[in-house]
Amino acid sequence: MKRHLAALVLAAVAPLCVAEATMPSPVKLAIDATHVTGPMTPIWAWFGYDEPNYTTAPNGKKLLSDIAALSPVPVHVRTHNLMTSGDGSYALKWGSTNMYSEDKDGKPVYDWTIIDGIFDKYIERGMKPLAQIGFMPEALSQRPQPYRHHWKPGPPYPELFTGWATPPKDYGKWSELIYQWVKHSVARYGRKEVESWYWEVWNEPDGGYLSAPDPKHEYFKMYDYAADAVKRALPTARIGGPHTAGAGRFMDDFLRHCLRETNYATGKTGTPLDFVAFHAKGAPKVVDGVVRMGMDTHFRHLDEGFAVVAKYPELNGIPVIVGESDPEGCAACSMQTNPENAYRNGTLYASYTAASIAREYDLATRRGVNLIGAVNWSFEFEDQPWFAGFRDLATNGVDKPVLNVFRMLGKMRGDRVAVTGDRTYDAARIQAAGVRGARTDIDALAAKDAHHIAIMVWNYHDDDVIDAGSPVELHIAGIPAKRVQLRHYRIDQEHSNSYAAWKRMGSPSHPTAAQVAELQKASELAQVEAATVATQDGAATVRMQLPRQAVSLVTLTY
């Protein structure tokens, strides 16, 4: 175990010894394994990205395998550009499958080659598509030229919204394309498999992604025709939306339309809605030269979305998916144009992810909504410099520290159990004011199943500052065994951190094969302690030193 990690002790609860009295007072967290607070729904096992053709690139396939391996349940994957026209090449915020074109007489030509190659990679790994119906094929675009964008970080987002971002010029052909795609999917993968997917229409129609004089009602029409086509092809398929950028009037009006208004495609009242989806982002900024995260903004957007769903009694219990849930917006904006995005390489992003995902359970419970997924919008970017500051899970095939948070979450299953503390933040406090000032957020998420208790504990602050942190004492009650196998995993500056290892090498722009092997080893989730220990009266205490921005996972197996 590294020297800066204080000895981790698991023993019966007892007073601290005299030598410990001179140490800083520990942060105390109490875990009661007999007090279930709700299911440990794997809301974290959802990932997404703009560029679908990264899926079949070598580093993309490796990362998919890494993601699939960390989860005990199927991982859901959401990607843009699944219907976009093109040759299947990738670029920042771009991709294509060319599934639809027309012959010289205007008759549809369907080509499933590229989309099959993408979905095959998911299905081979036991993953489930959150299949996005979008964007508009060139032959159906209302303004087809210019069609492909060549956006690079720096120009404003309107540079993106070329011919792929329009509604269809022919709703009959649009509907038939969707019908044929779902029908083909059933033929290729089987009815049972496709029934386990989720289908959605478009992305952020309220955020510029739908270029139309009246994007709201045009989107309602697109959704109605798409939902009708999906259900005709597979009546048991699941479709939902609206995947709005926020939870404002657009989302509210969409839900009312689906529940109570006339369907554009059928003329009847109501439109199928099997889940509700919206997006929520934070808002980092630089203060006195230091990155300050905006978890408060992130939580307010989450709460606003949950509140909109909760206002409709007809939606009680409907699955809710946060289609993009991230610290900020542009995954494809690197340090080259946004130097502050260096935080994404290291432990600030990791600790933010741990602290925010844990509180999403509380935010959803407070509004009484059925949260089933929160999509982490990050994957990987091909042909880019090492640790370039993109919001991604890996760089050049090497996993970044944030991915190890998901490896930790993958070891947590069963039911969530109660955690209380003497200096903890709660979701409402963070939503109101973030994690600012002198005190950091040291808290935990705990879960148990028949043979395990797992506790993920973090030391988070909005400001990107690292220090020695604080001693932490976990008091665990309700352990149904006299002896347990303890394992302790850690993400910090010395463990589970390929970025820190790369910097120690001198930040090579072209690492040697030996250096890449070293980085691969550093990218794995590090176990720092393992022991068989006794408990007393079903209770035990774990002590550790937890640096700022560190995340630990303690598991007890019996």
UniProtKB/TrEMBL annotation:
<dbReference type="InterPro" id="IPR017853">
    <property type="entry name" value="GH"/>
</dbReference>
<keyword id="KW-0732">Signal</keyword>
<dbReference type="InterPro" id="IPR000514">
    <property type="entry name" value="Glyco_hydro_39"/>
</dbReference>
<dbReference type="InterPro" id="IPR051923">
    <property type="entry name" value="Glycosyl_Hydrolase_39"/>
</dbReference>
<protein>
    <recommendedName>
        <fullName>Glycosyl hydrolases family 39 N-terminal catalytic domain-containing protein</fullName>
    </recommendedName>
</protein>
<dbReference type="InterPro" id="IPR049166">
    <property type="entry name" value="GH39_cat"/>
</dbReference>
<dbReference type="Pfam" id="PF01229">
    <property type="entry name" value="Glyco_hydro_39"/>
</dbReference>
<keyword id="KW-0378">Hydrolase</keyword>
<feature type="signal peptide">
    <location>
        <begin position="1"/>
        <end position="19"/>
    </location>
</feature>
<comment type="similarity">
    <text>Belongs to the glycosyl hydrolase 39 family.</text>
</comment>
<keyword id="KW-0326">Glycosidase</keyword>
<feature type="domain" description="Glycosyl hydrolases family 39 N-terminal catalytic">
    <location>
        <begin position="98"/>
        <end position="532"/>
    </location>
</feature>
